[in-house]
Amino acid sequence: MVARLIGQSIKTCARCECSLAHSITALRGSEKTMDYSIGEFFSSVIKLFALLTPPAALSAFLSGTQTYGGRRKRRTALRTGAAVFIVGTVLYFFGESLFSVFGFTLDAFRIGAGALLFLTSVALMGEQRESHTPDSPDEDISVVPLAIPICMGPASIGTLMVLGASAHSLTERIIGSAALFVASALITLMLLMANHVQRILGKTGLAVLSKLTGLLLAAIAAQVVFTGVKNFLIVG
Asked: Helix 154-166 vs helix 194-235: angle between axes, to the nearest 10 degrees?
């Protein structure tokens, strides 16, 4: 009788240890998944923020709001960030439907968007873009040209459509939309602090920032193009 009780106790302990081991393994797996999601989120924020070409947006904002008062500058910065987020969200979630409408593949669009993005990086690596000064003091520059086409130019639009079409799971879409929101918020914050950023960095600092952004965009463009070419070769 005692031996039977001892045997049952040992079996119960073994089952508890096995259950505990499975729980620990599942917990470690969830931690790895969470770490991957967090890393993917921050990587997406950096990529999207670079796609919005912050040096060009900052330069155009400073030149276009020279005659603005403080309140109007803040309103312009907020409108620009809101327009960037709205346009980017529409392209991210509904850009894939354009592929079926026009009949081209995602990989073809990857190559085209990568080529445009590479040209944008070359422009940033070269001389500064032409400043955008409003034709009249009453002109609103928040949507055009700040949001479109400076922040959301052809390269940014194409890359956002590719990113949205490449996100298949709900988690990927949530991470992408959250990253777009944070990137738009960072652009808004940069424009709100434009005068302070200009004083801190100066012309040399802004030029260096422009070159670094151009290098990052060139790397993103190369990755997008190589992915499209690789998929074409595999399918072929």
From this structure: 60
Q: Give yes or no for a cis peptide into 145 (omega within 30° of 0).
A: yes
Amino acid at 120: T
C-alpha closest to that of 125 among 219, 191, 36 = 219
Q: Which two tokens stand for residue 187?
A: 């652009």
Tokens of 68: 């603005």
Q: What is the pLDDT of residues 73-96, one digit of tens each?
A: 999 999 999 999 999 999 999 887
Helix, coil or strand: residue 151: helix
Q: Which is higher by pLDDT, 172 or 6?
A: 172
Biggest CA-to-CA distance, the chain: 98
Does this model's pTM top 0.70? My answer is yes
Instruction: Indicate the residue type of 10.
Output: I
Rounded alpha-carbon distances, angstroms, from residue 42 to 49, 122, 175, 182, 190: 10, 25, 9, 10, 18
3-state secondary structure of 24: helix
